[in-house]
Structure formats: structure tokens, C-alpha cells
Design a protein that fits this description.
heterodimer; A: alpha/beta; seven-stranded parallel sheet; five-stranded parallel sheet; B: about 250 residues; alpha/beta; Rossmann fold; nine-stranded mixed sheet; 13 strands
Chain lengths: ~300, ~250
């Protein structure tokens, strides 16, 4: 068995989601190759070579892969799939964008967001917003899989893989990258943070998220939001935690003014410790919180900040 | 220009599912079913394309059992012109659905195909991307804005870091994210009118697609239950518990 992991990176370095995905790959088999496809991405290739357990890094360095456009990436991955038993990518917006097309071109199914490797062809994955866990067996010769990163530890950095250049240039000419609005923050990334503090509709407006940011800065935490807060326009979409937003599993998750809709719980209920602050003592969030505080958030959150 | 919009019949998003006692699947008996929320957004976007004069006809397509005609009628009540049901008694995997949809696209030649980014039952997030690969049409997933400009389209996508805008050569396949639009409700007169709109039923054989199993569902279990913890009296107690009991700060 031979596994190809599609790296997520910013051309200079590897994103942590790649490390979780390599751990999932190593739970399947020992022979793990990582593909770094990008433009001027030698830095990312170097850091991929240091991931523990990786034997080979393939580098496809070409402007066609600069923004990992789906049409180009899937054509490249299909070219590299020969002889591979498994193709794995993190279940991030990038992996989700690319991998189903790879599966379709190979005429195989995709198993999305695995949370456990049972054997080389049996995997567990959440369905129905995490209210059930399905155990599925792949019947295909090549298994195309996306990995829920919070379910696997990050691989170490003691590796010394060989680096090989890939010369294939796949440019479908169907799509062009125009631009992006990336939210720049000094705080840790939501999906990688050890502590996350999130606000919901109860925050009232976007300015009030400043209260959460003050706590976050004291704790070194990331700031998240419920879908209700994003839909209401309080904060941007990249902060959404939930079934269709980001899945997080930090050591500590503090939910402020969040009632606890099923789709929100799906994105955070694997956190180690959950704190809920809400003035409604009937809020469903309390049924899964380790520590619940029934209080007005506009009093409790500043008090929390000053006592840290 | 024709627009195809796909709809899936799924469990209503407000219903909490239960796993069957024998662990074979979730229990969908007597459970309220509805149109997948992301498909509602897709239907709304298709109708807006018609209202703005970009589209001339909106065709709603669903793959599923006869019951999914209910969701197709909803799409017709919302403003779709006609509907196609591809009959299938079993829950088909994404690739099979994508192959059936690819055949419908071949017959109808739409300029835009809009799908929900994922269905809230299987949470797969696959069909739109597979359809793009099978048809060779350009792909704009997780769209929060779709702007058709003649022979190209600008699609703004919700990605992990924020928003990304790409330009696609027409025809395109787009999948919807939550902020693309706010779906309307169907009015009673439109619900009545929808009953008379054409709804065609096709089968996989007619479309020349052979259905193939790619996975086998071995079992379905309940996730590890999280128990409710304790209520703390005030912030001071909360901080004390986090420091000395949970040891997370």
C-alpha cells in the first residue's frame, strides 16, 4: 500500500492540517508520499520533507498551481495517482474543493471527513451533523479520503524525506484566481488554537466582539462565532464554527451568548473542556458544557477578563 | 440561458436524528423531511438569475424516490419553470448522483448549474465537485456571490482564510454557501400554480447510467455522549475551576 497526501500550504510553509492528515495516513500504511503543488513552493517542500514518517515529497512548482485551483489540482493528482492505494487530503475548504473531482475522474467514491482509521479500507465518519457515526468500507481500488483534522494528532518534525520534482503541468484554463480577502489576525488560527472563545447572537453586534477579543488576548485564544452571529453580519464567515463552518476541538472552548443549535454543537463538541456563558438557563448549550455560568455576558465577560 | 438547480430531500434540519437499535442506520421512520437548506439557497439563486434576466428557464432536478417530488414541487412553487425527477429507490452515493446529473446536463445544455455545497444528512460535500470533473465545466464551490458577465462568471467563495474570488469560463457549476442569499417562502397561489407545472420522471436506465456501489455501510452508532457538567455561581468560581480543576488556563 502506498499513500499520497495532498499538502495544504502557503508556498513558504506547511499548514498544520497537513500534519494531522499525515498521521491519519500513517494509521493506514507506512509508505507515505506528500504532494506539494504550488508556485515558488520550495519552502513548503522543505518543511514537508521534515514531517515524521514521510518517505518522499513530490513538488509540482508551477504558476498553474499557485492558488490550488480545483480543475488544475485534480488533473495533477490523477496523474500522480497511479500505483497509489489511498489519496488523502485534509477536510479543509481546499481539500473539499479538490478531492471529490479527483475521485470522479478516477471513477471511485470519496469518503469524507474520516475521524478514525479502522483498517486500510474501513473508516469512521460523522454524519447528520455529528449526531451519528457511520462505519463505512470502501469497495474501490483507490481510496479517496478527506480527513477531519481535529480527530488526528499532528505528525512530528523529525523526518528527512527525499524531494522529487514533478514536471507535469496541468492547466485546464477554466478558472483564474482574481483575489482574496484574507482576515489577518495576530491571534492563533481558529482550528489550531488551544483555547477558543466564541460569540453568538447574544453578542448583539460586531463591536461587542471586542469583549471576547480582550479575553482572547489574555489567554492566547482564537475568536470564533456561531452561524447566527455570522448570518447577522456581526463578524466574517471565516470565524464560523459549526457543521458547515470550521470544526474545532481545543482544550478549552468558551461559548458566549450562544444558545447551542445542533449545527453549532457539531463544530465544537469534541473540545476537551466547554464553558457556556448565557443568560438563558434553558439554553441547550448548558447540556454539553462542563462549566455553565448563567449570567449577563456584558457583565460576566469583562469580569472574566479582569480576573485573568 | 437555462439554469439547472438540484434539490435533495433530507431530514428536516430541526429534527435530532436517532440511531436504530440494531445499529444498521439512523431511524428515518415518521421523521419530518424537507428540502436540504443549501438546496433552498441554490433554488433562490437560480430564481434570482431569472428575475434579473440572466436566465430564461430554471429547471429543478432531484435524484430520489417518488417522495422527492414534494421538494421538486416546492422548487416549482418558488419559481422554477419545470422539474425532472430521476427515480431511485435507494439513497445513491454522490458519484452515482453526479453521473445521473451529468446526463441531464448533456440533454439540457444549461449555462449555469447550482447545487447546495453539502446535504445535511450525509454531510459529504462532493456532488458539485464531481459533476464539474465529469462534465469539464468550471467549478465555483462554497459561493457567497455569483456574478454572471456574458461568457464568464465571477464567483466569490467562502474559504477557511476568508473570501476568495475566481473568474470562471462559462458554462459553470456553482455550489452554495450560507451567505449567498436568503431564500424566500413560497406563496399560496404559487404553491397552487406549481401543481400544474411540468414534472418529468426519468430513470437511470433511460439516462444510460449504471449505478455502482463504492462504499458499504457497515454500521451506524451514536457518538460519545457528552454529559452536562456543573453550574458555577459566578466568574470567580469559573476561573477557579478552570485553573485548579480542569487546569486549562
Amino acid at each position: 500500500m502506498s499513500i499520497l497526501v495532498i499538502a495544504e500550504h502557503d508556498n513558504d510553509s506547511i499548514k498544520s492540517s497537513t500534519l494531522n492528515t499525515v498521521t491519519a495516513a500513517l494509521a493506514i500504511a507506512d509508505d507515505v508520499t506528500v504532494l506539494v503543488a504550488g508556485s515558488n513552493c520550495q519552502g513548503a517542500a522543505q518543511s514537508a520533507a521534515k514531517i515524521s514518517g514521510v518517505s518522499t515529497v513530490l513538488v509540482a512548482d508551477n504558476p498553474a498551481y499557485a492558488n490550488q485551483l480545483a480543475e488544475n489540482m485534480r488533473a495533477l493528482i490523477v496523474e500522480l495517482a497511479e500505483g497509489k492505494s489511498h489519496l488523502l487530503a485534509p477536510a479543509t475548504t481546499s481539500g473539499k474543493n479538490i478531492m471529490p473531482g479527483v475521485a470522479a475522474l478516477l471513477d471511485v467514491g470519496q469518503i469524507s471527513e474520516i475521524i478514525k482509521v479502522e483498517s486500510a479500507d474501513v473508516f469512521e465518519r460523522p454524519v447528520y451533523a455529528g449526531n451519528a457515526v457511520a462505519k463505512v468500507q470502501s469497495l474501490d481500488a483507490i481510496k479517496v479520503i478527506t480527513v477531519r483534522t481535529t480527530a488526528f494528532e499532528e505528525a512530528g518534525d523529525t523526518g528527512s524525506a527525499s524531494i522529487e520534482e514533478v514536471t507535469a503541468i496541468c492547466d485546464a484554463g477554466k478558472s483564474t484566481f482574481i483575489g482574496e480577502e484574507v482576515v489577518v489576525s495576530e491571534r492563533p488560527e481558529l482550528t489550531a488554537a488551544k483555547i477558543v472563545i466564541s460569540g453568538g447572537r447574544g453578542m448583539g453586534n460586531g463591536e461587542n466582539f471586542g469583549l471576547l477579543e480582550a479575553v482572547a488576548d489574555k489567554l492566547g485564544a482564537a475568536v470564533g462565532a456561531s452561524r447566527a452571529a455570522v448570518d447577522a453580519g456581526f463578524v466574517s464567515n471565516d470565524m464560523q464554527v459549526g457543521q458547515t463552518g470550521k470544526i474545532v476541538a481545543p482544550d478549552l472552548y468558551i461559548a458566549v451568548g450562544i444558545s447551542g443549535a445542533i449545527q453549532h454543537l457539531a463544530g465544537m463538541k469534541d473540545s476537551k473542556v466547554i464553558v457556556a456563558i448565557n443568560k438563558d438557563e434553558e439554553a441547550p448549550i448548558f447540556s454539553i458544557a462542563d462549566y455553565g455560568l448563567v449570567a449577563d455576558l456584558f457583565e460576566a465577560v469583562p469580569e472574566l477578563e479582569s480576573s485573568l | 440561458m437555462k439554469v439547472i438547480v438540484t434539490v435533495k430531500r433530507v431530514i428536516d434540519y430541526n429534527v435530532k436524528v436517532r440511531v436504530k437499535a440494531d445499529g444498521s442506520d439512523v431511524d428515518l421512520n415518521n421523521v419530518k423531511m424537507a428540502m436540504n437548506p443549501f438546496c433552498e439557497i441554490a433554488v433562490e439563486e437560480a430564481i434570482r438569475l431569472k428575475e434579473s434576466g440572466v436566465a430564461t428557464e430554471v429547471i429543478a432536478v432531484s435524484v430520489g424516490p417518488k417522495a422527492c417530488q414534494e421538494q421538486l414541487r416546492t422548487a416549482l412553487a418558488l419559481g422554477a419553470d419545470r422539474a425532472i425527477q430521476v427515480e431511485s429507490d435507494e439513497q445513491l452515493e454522490s458519484l452515482n448522483v453526479a453521473k445521473l446529473l451529468a446526463k441531464v446536463i448533456e440533454q439540457e445544455q444549461p449555462g449555469v448549474v447550482i447545487l447546495g455545497k453539502q446535504a445535511i444528512d450525509t454531510d459529504n460535500n462532493q456532488t458539485g465537485q464531481m459533476l464539474s470533473a465529469l462534465t469539464g465545466m468550471a467549478q465555483g464551490t462554497f459561493a457567497s456571490k455569483i456574478d454572471i458577465q456574458g461568457d464568464k462568471a465571477l464567483v466569490t467563495r467562502e474559504v477557511d482564510g476568508g473570501l476568495q474570488t475566481i473568474e470562471l469560463a462559462m458554462p459553470i457549476i456553482a455550489t452554495t454557501d450560507l451567505r449567498l442569499n436568503e431564500p424566500r417562502y413560497a406563496s399560496l397561489p404559487n404553491i397552487m400554480k406549481a401543481k400544474r407545472k411540468p414534472l418529468e420522471v426519468k430513470t437511470a436506465e433511460e439516462l444510460g447510467v449504471s449505478i455502482k456501489a463504492h462504499t458499504k455501510l457497515l454500521s451506524v452508532g451514536a457518538p460519545a455522549e457528552r454529559k452536562a457538567g456543573i453550574k458555577v455561581a459566578d466568574v470567580a468560581e469559573l476561573v477557579d475551576k478552570l485553573k485548579n480543576e480542569a487546569k486549562v488556563i
